Known about the structure:
Layout: H1 6-74, H2 77-85, H3 88-102, E1 106-111, E2 116-119, H4 134-142, E3 146-152, H5 154-160, H6 162-168, E4 170-171, E5 185-186, E6 189-199, E7 205-214, H7 220-230, E8 234-235, E9 238-239, E10 241-247, E11 250-254, H8 271-279, E12 284-290, E13 293-303, E14 309-318, H9 320-370, H10 384-410, H11 414-469, H12 477-500, E15 509-511, H13 513-524, E16 533-539, E17 546-548, H14 550-567, E18 572-580, E19 586-593, H15 600-603, H16 621-631, E20 635-641, E21 645-653
Parallel strand pairs: 16-18
Antiparallel strand pairs: 1-2, 1-7, 3-6, 4-5, 6-7, 8-9, 10-11, 10-14, 12-13, 13-14, 15-17, 18-19, 19-21, 20-21
Helix pairs in contact: 1-7, 1-9, 5-6, 9-10, 11-12, 13-14, 14-16
Amino acid sequence: MHRISARSIQSQLILNFTMAIIVPAIITTVVGVKLIYNQVIMRAESKTLSDLNSAAEIYRNKVSHIENVTRLTAVRSLVVKALADKDTKFLQDDLQKTLRRENIDILTIVDEKGKVIGRGQNPGIIGDILTADPFIARALRTQRVVMGTDIVSKDYLALESPELAMQAMMEVVPTPKAKIRQSNIETSGMVIKTAVPLFTNDGKFVGVMLGGVLLNRNFDIVDKVKEVIYEREVYKGMEIGTATIFQNDLRISTNVKNQDGSRAIGTLVSEDVFREVLELGKQYVGEAFVVNAWYITAYEPIRGIDGKIIGILYVGILKKPFDDILRNTLITFFAIALGGIVLIILIAVHQAKKISRPLKKIEEVANTIAEGNYRQEITVEASREIEHLASSINQMARELQKEKQELEEWGSTLEVKVNERTEEIKKIHSQLFRSEKLASLGKLAAGVAHEINNPLTGILTNSSLLLDDLAKDDPRREDVDVIVKETIRCREIVKRLLDFARQTKPQKQLININSIIDNIILLVRNQTSFRNVAIEKILSDSIPEIMADKDQIQQVFINIIINASEAMSKGGSLRIESQLSRSADTIFVKFTDTGPGIPDHMKEKIFDPFFTTKEQGTGLGLSISYGIIEQHGGDIDVDSVLGGGTTFTIKLPVSMQEAG
């Protein structure tokens, strides 16, 4: 005999106590850390988006500054007079002074035809036509101020100043997680421009002044963003906040640093951001790999005056501080959990010893009783449950002693009594079997004859007579014809019901399950019991035709659908689904209602013959349906929650051969 030692009980109790604390501790730790991390990242993303709006405002202020400088220069009467008089020397001198004073890169003036009259940086080149410049062209056409951002070619910059062309040109640096770029050299430049029309005192339009700042290798905007928004904060040697201006996908102005501490000029934006911002024109807020580290970033497109995306404005917060917060939080949670586990183990050991001590005593007495010595008495001082256990064992010992005495008294006559009792049981069993069989057959015959045949005969007779009386063009003739045909089919079902006891073989043919369901819904939807029932079909198009008895399968479906409608007498919904298994060897047909459900103690009886909860029911519908599906090699499952509806699932094999 296997004996459970006190040590194994202690181990089990300790294990149970430990698991009771470990599982909640792990779940709490994981959920807590996840919630904290999500909140931190969500707040960081929200702040980054706010920072992006601030950076965009700084960028717009730069555009406005250039517009103000250009406008103030353009409205000076001496400049307008010099332009009207084509005084190129005065214009060149004045434009050069303004460039140096206002620290801008481009200040060019053209006449009303777009011909260059003066350049601030390159005064020796005049007379060329700038109508191809979209800003000048729009200002000439509309005679209004035009400002924004533009991408200009190397030749355009060279005309303004060879130094600007050199400043714009940069080598593309291969960048991790970036989209591969076809060209390794970028020669064009990104310029903030303003084109201001010039008018004489009498309102005559005489030309346009163009002002601009080249953004390539110009760090005024990005450094101002870092200074104003992030206050140059540093975390473990890395700057917390960064800002970048992209020309398309190329960093042309940034304070993101390379590993050597230099600005990451010439590096590329990540492929995810490229797709979201440059291709789709959306804002991007989230985690992104920036040159050599992960940042919580925000990007938005920079558009030209024609609305086309020509660049990106970026701000980002270093993600490493948030990762460190998560790690420290995780360590704290695990330390608390570990402390709780140690404490619970100590408590478990103490409680296990307290519980196992009286159990050991009970075990010893129980072993003695098991060996046949029933004159034992257990006395323990322990918890109420253990004292009850000891009392029960004492009672058991007394009963065993009593039974032992009775068995000894009955020993001499045992064989005679066993034979007599056996004969009695055989007779009772035979009588019960015959009674149940006769009762079942009687109920079946009575149910079929009384409940189905008589009404069907009346319906068939009267509907046939009504059909004969109707004219061929009578619109009701089609409905009456349906009644006759369906009544004849019901009579056939009655015959199949009578054949059910003899296991009548189905008359199989190729059928389509979805078509049968559609026909049934057309048949029952106008019945009174379905007026308050919403029927939903979800039928798979991949259901193949199968070999089955169409009438029998239709009988099964109608039976289940009608049962569902009767269960939802106050209204509800019925969902009918058909689908093919992944292995394509089984068709599933599900009928789900929102009725009151089936109690647990009835679930195993609903397919029994003659089991019914209806006052007028025969209890044959589901048992016949079960037999039909079984003869087709299928199965019926029922899943029901009391108060939560019922689902019948019919499984039919997909086979061109008849099921065994």
